[in-house]
Automatic annotation (TrEMBL):
UniProt organism field: Corynebacterium callunae DSM 20147
Name listed for the protein in its UniProt record: Glucosyl-3-phosphoglycerate synthase
Enzyme Commission code: 2.4.1.266
Superkingdom, taxonomy of origin: Bacteria
Major enzyme class: transferase
Cofactor(s) listed: Mn(2+); Mg(2+)
Stretches assigned to the Glycosyltransferase 2-like domain: 5-128
Catalyzed chemical reaction(s): (2R)-3-phosphoglycerate + UDP-alpha-D-glucose = (2R)-2-O-(alpha-D-glucopyranosyl)-3-phospho-glycerate + UDP + H(+); an NDP-alpha-D-glucose + (2R)-3-phosphoglycerate = (2R)-2-O-(alpha-D-glucopyranosyl)-3-phospho-glycerate + a ribonucleoside 5'-diphosphate + H(+)
Keyword list, A-Z: Glycosyltransferase, Magnesium, Transferase
């Protein structure tokens, strides 16, 4: 089994981050890193109490952070020591022991570079219906522009794993386009066969209002269009290597 670094980007996720950290630690990874993006609540304290190594994103490297989730992931890759980096969102209410191991297991095959979680997205008390930006923005654009990735069930999902050596060679979109950007870039560089999926059951998390989802959809759409060759402007970090 490859050594595993779990990287959890967090911004004001005090109510949920401790449980996510504790579930990840059960799988005995090399480390669990919480990348705190200047939280103003007790996120850092809760994560540290649960057993994570907490790093404020400013202390990882001497560059002013670019606001956005992708920035935390990029800095997390820089700080990580494991051969495989498992990314997990800090707001999950359904992350369970065993999921880190499931996401890392396919790397026993040296041809695999990226592992995406496959799951049902809950919505309120309903078992399905979540993932509105995924279903209404990401999947339609991928079907049209990158049909070879049509089989990926959760292209925007925050639970996935990547070889650290691979991640260091790829750009990271600073905002919420980071997941789909990495998906497209890995497929281009290593082929679609280098990406696989593992079933993690269902996912529950905090739901955003439509106005917030609209902003997320803008970034996701711009990322996919830019990767397809359109002259879109997106903010992203250059590869670390």
């Amino acid at each position: 089994m490859s050594s595993i670094s779990v990287v959890i980007p967090a911004l004001n996720e005090g109510p949920t981050v401790a449980a996510v950290v504790q579930a990840a630690l059960v799988d005995n990874p090399l480390e669990v890193l919480v990348i705190d993006a200047d939280s103003t609540d007790n996120t850092a304290q809760e994560a540290r109490r649960a057993g994570a190594r907490v790093l404020n994103w400013r202390e990882i490297m001497p560059l002013e952070p670019i606001p956005g989730k992708g920035e935390s992931l990029w800095r997390g890759v820089f700080a990580a020591r494991g051969e495989v980096v498992v990314f997990v969102d800090a707001d999950l209410r359904s992350f369970r022991p065993g999921m880190v191991k499931k996401l890392a297991a396919p790397f026993a095959d040296p041809k695999i570079h990226l592992v995406k979680a496959d799951y049902e997205r809950t919505f309120g008390d309903r078992p399905t219906g979540g993932g509105r930006v995924t279903e209404l923005t990401a999947k339609p654009l991928l079907r049209i522009l990158f049909p070879e990735l049509n089989h990926i069930q959760q292209p925007l999902g925050g639970e996935y794993a990547i070889r650290r050596s691979t991640a260091r060679t790829l750009p990271f979109v600073a905002g919420y386009g980071v997941e789909v950007g990495l998906l497209i870039d890995v497929a281009r560089r290593h082929g679609v066969a280098a990406i696989t999926q593992v079933d993690l059951g269902s996912r529950s998390h905090n739901h955003q209002p439509l106005v917030a989802l609209s902003k997320m959809a803008d970034v996701v759409a711009a990322t996919i269009l830019q990767r397809s060759g359109s002259n879109m402007t997106i903010t992203q970090r250059d590869p670390l290597d």
